[in-house]
Specification:
single chain; two-stranded antiparallel sheet
């Protein structure tokens, strides 16, 4: 099993730690109420905003202040900081990146059919899988052309219809419907999740279907990842599973080409193993027949 993540270029740089206690300047604040460790000599002169607030609260006679409340608030602040993926700060500005929150929101939208604007009917049973046309159209030009063509066909059909109840029912539905009958439901759902969120987990039973999706909808990075994973399968017992899945997607040219490549490599590896075995078994001083 392999996890492939499509990482934006902005995420490939070096991450900056949330709290840099060694190199932080005295006059620069990160914007977070985090504790600052100082020596005993300068304890009176260098008090953080948090220390002053705690001191003022402790001087108050209110019965609502307690040590447990302070501990809970500090834990909440640390949890908020842990949710942030990356912070890049300078003397003049700070860039905060929180990609995982966006990914989680998109996953939630995909789980709500009413929030999606495209529905794929997958497999012979026509099981619905939902997506967002704006994201899919950006990730794949083939999807974009498909959506534009479907939209024009819907507009032409509405023009031909007369004013009737059927027309009102048709116009009330804004979700584009596309039939995809040649894929396994879980494979196509994983493919759409990759396009929306940028990561996918593949194994020997799903790599062929994902490769066919990548080729059909022109997703170059996923295609490269699938081929690299197939190479790892050739050196394990998963080769037979990959070959079996190519027959399952035999109506796709990508599966047919993959099966030819796998079988040819498997044959060459078998011949190479036999030749090595013959050389080892042949008596010393005699040439091995080829």
């Amino acid at each position: 099993m392999a996890l492939f993540t499509s990482t934006p270029k902005s995420k490939r740089g070096e991450k900056v730690l949330l709290l840099n206690l060694d190199n932080s300047d005295d006059d620069v604040s990160s914007g977070y109420d985090s504790p600052v460790y100082i020596s005993d000599e300068n304890k009176d002169d260098k008090k953080t905003v948090t220390d002053k607030m705690v001191a003022s609260d402790s001087s108050d006679d209110s019965d609502f202040s307690s040590d447990e409340a302070d501990d809970d608030s500090s834990d909440d602040d640390s949890d908020d900081l842990d949710d942030i993926d990356d912070i890049q700060s300078t003397n003049d500005s700070m860039k905060v990146t929180k990609i995982q929150a966006v990914v989680d929101n998109i996953r939630y939208i995909l789980s709500m059919p009413d929030l999606c604007d495209v529905m794929f009917l997958v497999g012979e049973q026509r099981i619905p899988v939902y997506g967002l046309k704006s994201i899919l159209g950006i990730r794949s030009k083939n999807f974009l052309d498909m959506f534009i063509k479907q939209s024009r066909e819907d507009m032409n059909s509405k023009k031909k219809l007369k004013k009737s109840k059927d027309e009102k029912q048709t116009s009330s539905s804004t979700k584009t419907t596309i039939i995809v009958g040649s894929y396994d439901i879980e494979v196509f759902r994983s493919f759409l999740l990759f396009l929306h969120c940028g990561s996918v987990t593949m194994d020997a039973s799903t790599v062929v279907g994902l490769l066919c999706c990548a080729v059909e909808f022109d997703i170059a990075d996923l295609k490269k990842a699938c081929l690299e994973f197939v190479d790892t399968c050739l050196s394990s017992v998963s080769t037979d599973i990959v070959i079996k899945e190519t027959f399952r997607y035999d109506d796709h040219s990508a599966a047919q080409k993959l099966r030819q490549v796998v079988l040819s490599r498997q044959t060459s590896m078998t011949l190479k193993t036999r030749n090595v075995t013959k050389q080892r078994q042949s008596p010393i001083g005699q040439e091995t027949e080829v």
